[in-house]
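Hi W.,

Here's what went into the run:
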Amino acid sequence: MDSPHDTLVLVSKTFGLFYLIALSVAVLVYVYWPSNRRKFDRAAQAILQGEDKPWR
Amino acid sequence: MVAQLTKSERQVALVILLALTIVGLIFAGAGKDDPIGVHGFLIMACAIAAIFAVISASAEPEPSPERLDTYYDDPSKIGIVLAMAWAAVGMLVGFWVALLLAFPDLTFDAGWASFGRLRPVHTSGVIFGFGGNALIATSFYVMQRTSRARLPDQLSPLFVLFGYNLFCLLAATGYLMGITQSKEYAEPEWYADIWLVIVWVTYLVLYLRTLARRQEPHIYVANWYYLAFVLVVAMLHIVNNLAVPVGLGSAKSYSLFSGVQDAMTQWWYGHNAVAFFLTAGFLGMMYYYLPKRAGRPLFSYRMSIISFWGITFLYMWAGSHHLHYTALPQWVQTLGMTFSVMLLVPSWSAAANALLTLNGAWHKVRDDATLRFMMVAAVFYGLTTFEGSFLAIRPVNALSHYTDWTVGHVHAGALGWVAMITFGAIYASVPWLWKRDAMYSARLVEVHFWFAVTGTIIYVISMWNSGIIQGLMWRTYTPEGTLAYSFVDSLIEMHPYYIARAIGGLFFLIGTLVGCYNIWMTVRGEALPAATEPAGDIPAPAIAARQPAE
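Here's what came out:
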């Protein structure tokens, strides 16, 4: 634990794992949050119509 | 082009160009005994030419306020033309260096024509010249349409575009003079790097300013990918190019890193250049143009968000797979390998999302070569990401590393994925941008498509063969325990494959030249009457009435 390299290894092997898991969970919660569904469906449809000119 | 600028923008443009002229003059003077002096003159010449362009248009009236009711598409148009010009040059040089490997005498004993100098002209020409310009041009197009907002001003998009091309020009001409910092895909020296930082930060700010003007509450996923490309490339470029120049009058600089740290920083950069320049940006392109052209919404918008975070997070750690069996600590190699294998999940979900979007539109894929370009791109994307994950596994890498298999893998990605999606996006945008009914010739798009596919397949298969033969020859032992083949033995075996590779490249180049001609003829052709929509070229649902604003 005395060299920066050892510290880096420790952080990668402990915190890194939980960072990865937390980020994955956060993304999945955002994606599958029920009220976001409408927003996503709208966004997917929006590019197909009515973009002939800017809104202002 | 200059007529689109307001009075004050023309003045700012002149100030910027004068400053650039002075910088060029300083380099030209301080570096009179160094190649940097030549670049000083080049910078000065470009700036002065631009000053003339601005001044000669100064009598033109200011653009009318009605311009604010339309998108600002000049930079996208110029960007597409520049992208195709760089494609022609970059692929021609690629063909040349392929021939050089088969017939080394073609250097003609000239320093500038040696493989080591021409090869980066090819790689930078196609990646940065062709790919970069296509990304900038399409990102301007996509950010405006998906935000329903015009670019916030007229000057900064042009600054980004021309500034970026000045960087590409400094890079390519520098290589021919022997200027390089010997970092793959980061060869340009310190002054070009600083210039790119200025241009790139302007690009990022411009993107954010446009998004800030949007009406849609949600930012369409293509913009996420484009933004990741802009933001991460800025970060990579700055860190990997940290260096101390010898002096103002010298092109040479010394990297801040040394030894294995330098190698790790370089391949953190190098692999993320693949990830964020050649993947994220082009995925942004795919997520807009493919559904648009097919006339169908994305198969799963949710899946596109999951892939986005998967790709951005996992790619960041994959770079160390370039350094298997080196002085890099074993655990860092294993980390890179693990993340590379995990990357298959978001990569394949992106490829699958694209192909599933085409369900119900396969008849269009059959009839429309533009959409077929995008479909083949998605297939090659899936193929190449699988191959990449596989090659990153350490024992597989033991066979493949330093062989042509890597070259084949890169070109499956660059030709099959990046170039195909770009040609698809360009063929879709050109009639929309220039208000044409359709491309000049649908048949020539078809011709381009088949040349491109044939060229890619010849190229990739010859390199797979050559790479695996090389790898096996280098590890074949005699019963006495010595190596069975010398390096030269393996080189002789490669000769037919090198010729085949050059032929594949020639096919691809011919396709690109056909594309240049087709685009040129479309631009020269007749515009539609102002009132009519280009109905023939926009998929049917796009003509549907505009939804009432919320």
